[in-house]
Amino acid sequence: MTMLRSIVFLSLAFFLPHSFGQQAAGTAISDSQKAEMVHRVRQEFLHAWNGYRKYAWGHDALMPLSRKPHDWYAHSLLMTPVDGLDTMILMGLKPQADEARGLIDTKLDFNQDIYVKDFEITIRLLGSLLSSYELTGDRRLLELADDLGRRMLPMFNSPGMPYEYVNLRTGAVRGAVSNPAEIGSLLIEYGTLAKLTGKKEYYDKAKRAMVEVYKRQSKIGLVGSGINVETGQWTDSTAGIMGGIDSYYEYLLKASILFGDGDCERMWKESITAINGYLADERPDGLWYGQADMNTGKRTTTYYKALDAFFPAVLVLSGDVDRAARLQQSGYKMWSFAGVEPDEFNYVKSQIENPEYPLRPEIIESTYYLYHSTHDARYLAMGQTFLESLVKYCRTEDGFAALKDVRTKEKEDAMESFFFAETLKYLYLLFAPPDTLDFDSIVFNTEAHPMQRNFTNLSHPNLSR
Asked: How many CB atoms lie within 10 A of CB 42?
């Protein structure tokens, strides 16, 4: 522990009441105490960023244990510098942000003969290029976003839903079996790109993909976990709010807010009725969400997953704060079970099913939304717990490492770009002054990249059900 971190830690121990760390409801903390947390999160970001800069500069990510660079494809797409750029801007880390922009301006080249995963490239790269452009006005970022968007358009060359992979140079596509999240989580980014470039094609194609998933929901209003984009047939009938479905629901609500899209609003309202009717699981120990068969609504498994922890944030955004708070308490129980949340937890058996922790942000995201909505200090206490856990179990000499097993705390040689884009951003915003980012004037994409709200209706009337 460095001298600076020791001072910060001791400051927190002195200033924060004991009940703060125990989630006492209504225990307020001062602005100076919040400032201590803001400073600490920023320092941890710099610690991880400096590790990347020293050992993986110009590559997609740092492997923090071996101190080696990692690239997703044959050619680096600068995943960490791009994905983390708007976090640096919001944190006021101008030298680091300027250096990252310089690297992006000169080295980021999408003219590559590589197949990329549509969903990940859209939410991480396109999302950050757009949000960073809106924050800085740097036209080069918008030019790169438009170039990427144009190269990604061939993914929509199917009967309506995008293929899973597209070649950035040739436009060739592959991967006919996809899922609702990867198909239906494109509208925030492509809709924003349409707004900024005036190219409505981006909006229309992304919205059509979302509508095509919605059209194929079951009679009881649920969608499954796998679908063939060429035939429109479901390949997996498991319904839930877990990965593979999660951000499809998220984008129905958020697109209705971001663009004033009435179709998305209607689809969301119908979907949330089915979600709460068939997936919500009221147990003696609280509210959980499990899995069910999309056609019958019959419960299939009782797993709550780390990715599911995004849902309280969506519930807050929809106005259902009470349900969000109860689900957040369940998620916090899952985190507390082993000191860090596992990737998958059987809430009926109180048993870890997948012990990994890949530095995920979703429970922190929901904490931020709930604190913004309620101003209840219990959520600041949660935030402190999450940061302490990250530092205690995941911090390395040169960054932060995922955990192979939250029970043993064995580390894994990985530090995904979303740790910069989401995990540390949401922790920072939780404690930062409200004017750091006007929550009510933006909508976050699923990678925590903020997009400016716009109520110009870009929707295509012929796409309505």
From this structure: 19
